Structures are given as structure tokens and as C-alpha cells.
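Okay, any thoughts on this one?
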Amino acid sequence: MPNKQHHTQLIKTEAKRLGFLSCGISKAEFLETEAPRLENWLNANMNGEMRYMENHFDKRLDPTKLVEGSKSVVSLLLNYFPSETQNSESYKLSKYAYGTDYHFVIKDKLKSLLQFIQHEIGEVEGRAFVDSAPVLDKAWAAKSGLGWIGKHSNLLTQQVGSFYFIAELIIDLELDYDTPTTDHCGTCTACIDACPTQAIVEPYVVDGSKCISYLTIELKDNIPLEFKNKMDDWMFGCDVCQDVCPWNRFSKPHNQPLFNPHPDLLKMSKKDWEEITEDTFRKVFKKSAVKRTKFTGLTRNIDFLKD
């Protein structure tokens, strides 16, 4: 069907024009290999207090239950690797949270892509997802040939590493489907060896309840004392497993102005963070993902990190 091929090419070309790193497409169907993996992970309570991970089990694994009549999952990657990072004498913030909250940036791009599809191809129904719904982003991206899931459970790509966001359009249009790529982690255990809290309990399995990202963002209670002096100065999120990954030597800075940090952010020292006021918090993180943890959450994290 030449039409299918033409439509696929149209979508991939437009995705590139919109600034996405890459675009892969897979058939919307039940994720057979992910089902037992997700079930075992949940049964082992590795989701900690992220109880929402237990909801919509079927929808997580089957996009046709999420978007009626869906035929294709269009997976997209958007680079967020910064050109400069924080002052080395600072409490640390995950690089993805430097600039404007990615949900807003990507949602707008996805809406534009869906409108383009409807305008160019005709009546196509679908929904856009940016990690805010029960969609297994990494599994779909891997199935679409955009990379493989590494031992740290993040998606990895030989050409660009792993510092990118993953998003999807699930649509009721049949397209040409990509095939998964192969795993290139080999015998490397850099991420497992470097994890400050030993959250990567075995290759490809992360105990979410031990992950610094979980402890500093998702966990609403006090951080358990067992993690005292093990947090490696991370006050929001953590990039250790990505920073040590050999594939990330190929990361190139993004060209999305909205992901650039507030100028004050990169200069702040530990003392500045310890003395941060709610006004400064609001100014520096005006449209940032850091607002998720709120001022009280960030100061709780900083207090926990202090000697």
C-alpha cells in the first residue's frame, strides 16, 4: 500500500521539522513481554508510594483500550541535554528540569503534529501522551526501534545516548511499522556500580522506592534515614546512571530555547540553595517541572542533604 508508506514518511518528516530528535512507529497492540515484567515489579513493591502505577494495568499494556480503534503508536524523542550545567559546588538538579516544564513544550508539538496529520491525511483520530497517562513510553519507543532499554531501565540510543524526553501519539491510522533495535549494553555495568543508593537491583530492574528521583520528587513523607549521606547532593531528580553511561558521550546540546535554565540557576551555590526563599523559588522555577515538588518539598530535600 503506497499510501501507508507515504503517510508514514509524511509524519516522520513533519516530526523532524517540529524539532523531534527521531520518530518511530509501532503497531498498537498488547505489550506481551512487558506484562509479566510490570506485574513482577509491582508485586515486589518497587513502585514505593507510586500507587498510581497499579491503576489501569490493562490500559498500560494495551493502547487499544486507551484510545478506541487505535492502530499505530507514534513514538517521539526530544533532546534536553544542556549546553552548560550547574556550578560544581551546588546541590544538584536533574538536567531535564533546568528549563520550562517539558509537558507544556512537548504537548504543543504533539498537537501540531496531530493537526498536521489531520490536515494532510484526513480524518484521523488520536491522543497525545507525555508521561501523564498510563502509557509505557520506554517500551513503545524500544518497540518502535528508537533505542533499547538499558540496564538502568532508560531508553538508550547509540547516536545520542539517553538525555531526551519520550512522547507518543496514539492514532487510528495504519502505518508502516519499525522494528526494534538490538541491545548494546554488553558487559558494561557502569550505571549499576555508580548508583548512589543501589537502586538498580539487577540489570534492567530498578527498585523505584530506592531511586533518588523517587525520594526527591514522588515521596511525600520524610526521606528515610537509611539514605542519609547517600544522595550524592541531588535535591531534585538524579542523573548519575545517565552521566556515567558511555553512550552519553554522544549527547549533543539541545536547540530548544524553552529548555534553557533561568540564568540564576546555574550560578547558585549550596549556601544560596540553603537560604532560598519562596520568592526566589517562584522566580527561578516559574514554569519548571520542579514546581511538582513545591517549595516545601525542595527545602525538605535540601535539609536532608545538609551535613
